[in-house]
What we know:
Mean pLDDT: 88
Distance between the termini: 42 Å
Helix content: over 70%
Structural class: mainly alpha
Low-confidence stretches: none
Shape: globular
Number of helices: 13
Amino acid sequence: MNQAIGRIVLTAPRRRAAGRWRWLLILPALLLVLLFLGVPYLNIVVMSFRTPSTGAPYAPGFTVASYAKALSDPLYLGILWRTLRISVLVTALCLLIAYPVSYHLARTRSRFRGLLFACILSPLLVGVVIRCYGWIILLANNGLVNVTLRQWGLIRRPLPMLNNEFGVTLGLVHIYLPFMILPLLGAIQGINPSLEEAARSLGASRIWVMRHVVWPLSAPGVQSGTVLVFVLSVSSYVTPVVLGGSRVQMMAPIVVQQLDEAFLWPFGTALAIVLAITGGLSVVAWFRITQRLFKGAL
Length: 298
């Protein structure tokens, strides 16, 4: 008994020393995060409360006028709503397309599995701007799709597929689809195939197995993939500018426009913070929804 107490007394200082060493190990990374992320974000928050000025980034004094305008002007509220709506649609379409692809990759034993995986990752090797201009070649009024449909006699007038929400949504789905496939692939690969075989041997249909076995167990991949695609879609800049033009205004291009063209830095940073807070609240709400949707799976 005395020996056990002595061991506990001796190990307590060692645990405290180990805790100090852990803090020393994470200290460099913590300093980098604070220096290159915390300080700039703090500067953005402070700048959003400064008085606007046309001859300088901001004038002396503080005000909440930028936030009042961002939260009361119907124009910017409409742009924020469109950004969230398109982002949710892109996330849902990516999940709908990526889930069967991820399941096939996780379960197939074909020798072409590596080739299919390479095809999924290959778009990441091409820049976003190049991919967007590739969609312009396909979707323009005189592009490949409209020309082909007219030659086949299916349409008389070109289908409007650019400078609208359809083109922006299609481009975002194409760009961010791999970011949905990869988390789902990892989650489905972690599911033991014997669970599906057991359910099938007991008479369950494939749909029942997918709904009650695979889908709940893949909840971590669904949650991480949807959050990743949603956050990337909300903050996307190149795709709305190239494929949406001036007709489809989303929040990120508007923020850049206020900072670069209008030179209204306080208002631009206020819009950026409103977008960040709205996106963060949406992510928190989605976490709550998925916790109830998947119950104890997460």
